């Protein structure tokens, strides 16, 4: 099974890094799901949750307010100013 190599960074730290089966981001024009072998993409992020689903099904989720996502050859890079834990995770 193919996986995604994900790097999720905020301005002051690495939020999450590793392999994932799927990533969901709040693109400026709506939610965008990212799967392996996806066409290269660059998108502006809006406000909402970034959800990273690992190969074992576990989910890492943070709220962002803008930023960008880049997808190229199963490599996903997410850059934001800040990433906050969701209220349910606190």
From TrEMBL:
It is a peripheral membrane protein. InterPro entries: ATP_synth_F1_dsu/esu (IPR001469), ATP_synth_F1_dsu/esu_N (IPR020546), ATPsynth_dsu/esu_N (IPR036771). SUPFAM superfamilies: Epsilon subunit of F1F0-ATP synthase N-terminal domain. Keywords: ATP synthesis, CF(1), Ion transport, Membrane, Transport. Residues 4-83 form the ATP synthase F1 complex delta/epsilon subunit N-terminal domain. Coiled coil: none annotated. Belongs to the ATPase epsilon chain family. PANTHER family: ATP SYNTHASE DELTA/EPSILON CHAIN (PTHR13822), ATP SYNTHASE EPSILON CHAIN, CHLOROPLASTIC (PTHR13822:SF10). This is F-type H+-transporting ATPase subunit epsilon. The lineage of its organism: Bacteria, Bacillati, Actinomycetota, Actinomycetes, Micrococcales.
